[in-house]
Predict the 3D structure of the following.
Amino acid sequence: MSELSLLAVHAHPDDESITMGGTLARYSAEGVRTTLVTATRGEVGEILDKELDPKEAAPRLASIREQELRSAVKILGVSELVFLGYEDSGMAGLPRNRDKQVFWQADEDEAVGRLIEVVRRVRPQVMTTYNEVGGYGHPDHINTHRIAVGAFYSAHDTKRFPGGESWRPSKLYYSAFPRSVIAEFGEAIKRAGLADRFSRDGDEEPPFAVADDRVTTRLDISPYLDKKLAAMRAHRTQIPEDSWFIEIYKAMGPTAWNREYYERARSSVEAPTPEDDLFAGLR
């Protein structure tokens, strides 16, 4: 078998550390080639780092967040970081969503083609991204799902996408937050008196919660929890020390972030369900 290779496709800096920092650290430590593709540099994200003046930092936020991401991937041991080269579209419904240069407005074939170039070069057996609603409905997350799925299914098609050697990844996964885990968070939030990030407009369930029966893969990343947390903290503009992500860890302890979950969306190899290895059936 060729070298084991994992390709993770995300929308903005920090998404990788929150959803699968432990996964990246685990497989990097195991000698798997790990490649992170990030569609944008998060140009219009929040600036929560109290050491920065938001007005001064906003024009250079792309470079700030790029450096934060480079620090995070170094902590996680990621083999290679690739930017697709699009701009952050902002939250759903903003006028920026209509700007020509943002990822939400990207030509789909062009974006899929850019990602296929990476797929054919690093030859992943496993690809990961978000589910069909992009985890929580952000335009860039939804488009990341579309582009990643398109590349997964079309990387072999050298007629439609010429250039490079044909490749077929074996397994496709979506990051997942099971409803049962969200319920655990909810109880911890109440006990700790923290702000509830999950409730929106009176809805009890956040948009990124998925039914537990959709979750096929549960990874215990306890040995890599310190690296995950350090990578999250590297994204200081998004995750300062008083952020919800750190406060929930302080409230719950390791159980807040020591597990990462996935929905196996496609596999051309036989693999058990449930499984505890994204490469199950491949080694």
About this structure: The chain has a mean pLDDT of 94.
